[in-house]
Every structure is written in structure tokens, then in C-alpha cells.
Amino acid sequence: MVAKFILKKDIKNIVFMGMGEPLDNFDNVIKAIDIFTHPYGPNIAASNITISSVGSVDNINKFANLIKMDIERAKTPPKDVVSPTAYRAIRFAVSLTASNNDIRSKLMPVNHKWNLQALKGALQELPLKRKSHNLFIEYILIAGLTASTDNARELAAYLSDLPSVVNLINYNPLANSPYRPASRDEQIDFVKNLTTDGQVCRWRDERGADIGAACGQLGAMYA
Fold this sequence. Notes:
The chain is of the alpha/beta class. The protein has 9 helices and 6 strands.
């Protein structure tokens, strides 16, 4: 509200990301979306809102049920002046980060509870308005770990029956990190192998790396 009405900034997109797992705060996130989309408030289109998750399967199922209720409600539109939020139009992103369970479990503890197969089952139940355009797979390229030809082919196979767009971003290194970004050649080869197998993908712009605030860098060092 301050950005739009006081600073006069045109807010076009909202992404629930980088502030903890949004779906763990499910009710308040949905309430916030209802406010953002309200015509008497910011009036932002639901299609310009994205929820990002690390793969909280139980809450993804809750979101899927909410969308299904929205679809049923749309069949008999209410006569109210203000239409309810079109949840089916919301975009959904999931941080996959790895192409198999062994690697993902090392990088993301959530995979111990909900592995890739459980996550895929939940994503297939999301009745998004246009799944291929509304479902995004976030994938980080880490040299020697997630950026190989085999990784690309595993990822393409995993997503072969799940219409989606892969958002690729190179690893942003931290001091004393055991990981390193993929080289330019590794990046090119990964995209080539992924698209050759029919997967749609695109690069995400890296911002904030110079001040330690890029994707994966939000932290603090103490002596």
C-alpha cells in the first residue's frame, strides 16, 4: 500500500518467496492474497501473484483443494459486486534444486519427509488455469552436483508428464561454501540437454550477489 499509493510505484507482480516457507503460514498467505487482489485495495490480478514452496506436500494439497473449490464456485458466479479471488489463476513455483532424491536430500531436508515422487503426485493434482504457464520449477545449477548431462536428463524425465517451465539460476557462492557455480559451458550444455528432451526452460536474472543478498545468500557471518 505504501509502495503503490504513497511512493507511487506501479506494483505489477507479487511473489511469496524468500521469507520462510509460505505454505507453512497457509491461512495468512491466502488472506494476504485476498487483500492484494481486492478491487478496493491494490487490485492486483491473481495471475500476477506467485506462491513459491520447497515442496510442502500436505499444504500443496490444501492449495489444490482451494483451487478446486474456486473452480466449482466459478460455475455459478456470485451476485456480489466484488468477485472472490480467482485462486486457479495464481502461479505456483516449487524449489526442486536437484534431479534425484539422493542429491535433493543432501541439499534440502524437506526431501526426507516428502521425496520427489510424493512431491510430483501433489503437483499433478494442482488444477491450475494453465499448468504449463502457471507451474514453475526452480532449479539451481551447482558444479559437480546438479549441473551434469545426467542431471539434465533426469530432470527432463521427471517433468516429462508434468507441464511446467523450469527456471534456471546459477549457484550464488558463499564464503566457506563447499559448492561452486556451474561454468558457462556447463550452463550451456545443461540447457541444451534439457530442451533437447522437450522441457521448456528459461534463465532467472541474478540480483544482489554483490551485497551477499542473491538467491541462497541471505545469511549472516559471526566471528
